[in-house]
Amino acid sequence: MKDTPFTAATDGCAAAVPPREAWRRKMRGDVLDAARAMAAEKGWDSVSLSEVATRAEVSRPTVYKEFGSRGGLSQALVHREAERFLLGVDRALQQPAATATDALAAAILYALRQARENVLVASVVKAARGGTDSLLPYLTARSEPVVAGARLLVRSWCQTHYQQFDDVRTDQAADVIVRLTLSHIVLPPPEHTLRVSAELITAAAMGVLTRETGPPTTS
């Protein structure tokens, strides 16, 4: 029996994907799934591309051809995780709430909880506390695409729900929200519950939005 070509929805229509591209997409997903599972099990520093290839049941050269290097696989793994994470945050921001500020606090709390429950993030943070794990830079120092995506999402939401403030204020508030949330994920304050952390991040963002500006100072 002949296989049915993989199809993808495009503008409301089903567009056939060539078998080779369908295989590549599946292979890429399988490799990322294997890499995620192994990183969660024993930390990314202990995972080799050969092991990932074996677990995904593909050849090592195939993995290199698709991702270029171990660093390329690291980046792809973190970016896929971030995309899934941000989809959840976006849904959380759209949930009904008494006020926009309540909705923001609830979404930040959701993000903190999801990060704690995410096995890959938990593995990275645990290893980082021990002074290791090469995935951490892709969540922090090398994470500009991740941070930028989160900032765009939060900035758009802020501009929609806090229209009384100009774009400069909403941009700054979005940046504070994203950076403080990331900081609390990577290095959570031990004395804070997740709810307290979410409330503090929300308060900081509101402080940015509503702060008073005085006349320029002269030196």
Automatic annotation (TrEMBL):
Gene3D superfamilies tied to this protein: Tetracycline Repressor, domain 2
GO molecular-function terms, A-Z: DNA-binding transcription factor activity; transcription cis-regulatory region binding
Location of the DNA-binding region in this protein: 48-67
Residue span(s) of domain HTH tetR-type: 25-85
Keyword Hydrolase: no
Keyword entries, A-Z: DNA-binding, Transcription, Transcription regulation
PROSITE patterns associated with the record: HTH_TETR_2 (PS50977)
Coiled coil ranges: none
A Pfam family it matches: TetR_C_35
Protein's recorded name: TetR family transcriptional regulator
Organism, as annotated: Streptomyces chromofuscus
